Structures are given as structure tokens and as C-alpha cells.
Amino acid sequence: MRTIRKSALGLGLAAIAGAAFLGGTVQQAAAEWQPRKPVEFIIMAGTGGGADQIARLMQGLIQQKDLSPRPFIPINKPGGSGAEALRYMHDKAGDDHTLLVTLNSFYTTPLVQENLGVDIAEFTPIARMAIDTFLLWVPADSEIDSLEAFGEKIKAEGRNWKMGGTGTGQEDSILTAMIEAEFGADITYIPYPGGGDVAKNLVGKHHDSTVNNPAEQNEFYRAGQSKPIVQFTEERMEAYPDVPTAKELGHDIVYFMQRSVNGPPGMSEEAQQWYISLFEELFNSQEWQDFCASDGLTCDEFVAGEDLAAFHQTNIERHKALIDQVGADAIVSQ
């Protein structure tokens, strides 16, 4: 049985149930607040990718389960490796009807694009819904069948080898730079607007490999058009029991992707708590947990509010270190 850790914010609300807040308790205020108009559900990536699929699944379940009196409207803003979405959210400060579905570009894009003028620490943390993973994929008929064979191939091919990925200066390009550093290779990185485009172009053989998330590549994998070589996880996932991890093969390459929902700076506390309650109910649903199991996501801990803010701060520092390790030039000029 999964143990779901409640957020510090949620526990804190119980502890201050008797505190006054605008003429009533915080709990009463949160219970009284609800969306008065459609909620913009901003996706900081293109259509068809993991973030897009997850956002639209959440939107569909929210509607199906009648969790909100107003609809959630998915809107893709992938420009500038998520910079478009981040600026949009920054400029919506104080808006209780706009949410952002994030991936790790939530951390990396402001770090790499220093003139963006966005501080994600000011955003309102709602809920972490999953930890997503990365695998190394090649076309099904590729002669490569191991990480060592892949390493030898990319060293031999050099810039002739093409790795497809989502955007530049974000997750896929960071992981590509980690792989290059591990094997002493210098390959060509081809950026696409979203993971769906990356997946399609791999099976179309417009590039040679990718580090797609499972949700992005599973359709083609199940159709026998692509194959996973290695997982970049601490341990093998249940969804891929026969695929080794890089770590168990002697290569310390571990990288994961957070899937969280955040509000703009200055969202009201009542709205924040209402959204936390909604996403906790969604997280605990059988539909969401089944999706996580089938698509190789880790969904055994619900993290929200102040706990999510702490998680974000830890990962900002982690990504600063990763960028320093591989070099900013390595992830933006591939």
C-alpha cells in the first residue's frame, strides 16, 4: 500500500483551524473559494509530448470526475524552451484562474536564459503529481542493443550522430550532454518543440536516437517501431523490467523529470488550497495511479504547498550543479 505524505501546508491548515482569516477560518475561506471562470491550464511544451499528454489527461479526469465547477482549458506555450509560458505566468501575478503544468525546464530555462526576468521561487506551488523518467531509445531495427555499443557508436560517428530532443537548454539537452561527457563524444543535438515530434522523427529516422520519456515513446515501442536501450533511473522500473539502468552498467547517469502544477506569483491562499485539494483527490484516483504504473512514472508520494516549494529549491540547486558540470555551452549550442 502506498503511503501518501500530506503537504506541510495541508497539515498546517489543520493546526490553525481556529485562526481568523478575513472573518473566518482558513479552512472556511478555502471551502468557500472556487473558480468563477474557466481555468487556463498552461503547458510549457508543445503538443504530443509528455507534459502535454499528462496535462490533457488531468484535464479530462477533472472533467470526468466533476472536480471543478469551471472547465480547465489546456493551452500550449512551448516557445523558447518554456520561456513563453514562464513569462506568461509571471505576468499573470495575482490571477487565481491560471495554472502551469511544469517539467524540468521550469528550473533550467530561467538559469540558462538569464535575461528572462522570471524567479520561479515567486510562483505559487500547488502539487507534484509524478516523477517521470528517461530512457535511451533507438529505432527497432538499429544494430545497437546495449549502452556500451551506443557509446562506441557515438564516439565513432561524432557530429554525424543525431540525437533528437525537446528544446535546447532543458532536460533532453542536459541529459544528452551528460551522455557525451560520460563517453567522451561530441554528437549533434536536434531540438524539437515537443516530445511527440521527437518520438515521431525517431521512428521516421530523421535522427538516430532520443532520450524520450516513456509516455512520449510508448506508442511506437508497443507497435514495435522503437526499442529502449537503457534507463536513466536509480533502479529498474516495473514497466521496463528487462531494460538495465545506466547505473547498474557502471555509468553514473541518473536523471528524472518532475511533473508538477504551479500557480502564478501572488495567487490567493484560498485558491491555492482549493487547487491542492483538487489535485490530491486526482492523485489518489485509481485512474491516475494506473496511468503512472503503465507509463513508468513514480506516483507514490503526493507533495504540495510548502513541501513542493522546498522540492523546487533543491532542484534549482541541482540543476545549477548539472549545468556547471557539463557546461552551459554544451546544452545550448549543440
From TrEMBL:
Classification via Pfam families: TctC
Signal sequence region: 1-22
Name used for this protein in its record: Tricarboxylate transport protein TctC
Homology family: Belongs to the UPF0065 (bug) family.
Keywords, in A-Z order: Signal
Keyword rRNA-binding: no
Ribonucleoprotein among keywords: no
InterPro entries: BUG (IPR005064), Bug_dom1 (IPR042100)
Organism: Lutibaculum baratangense AMV1
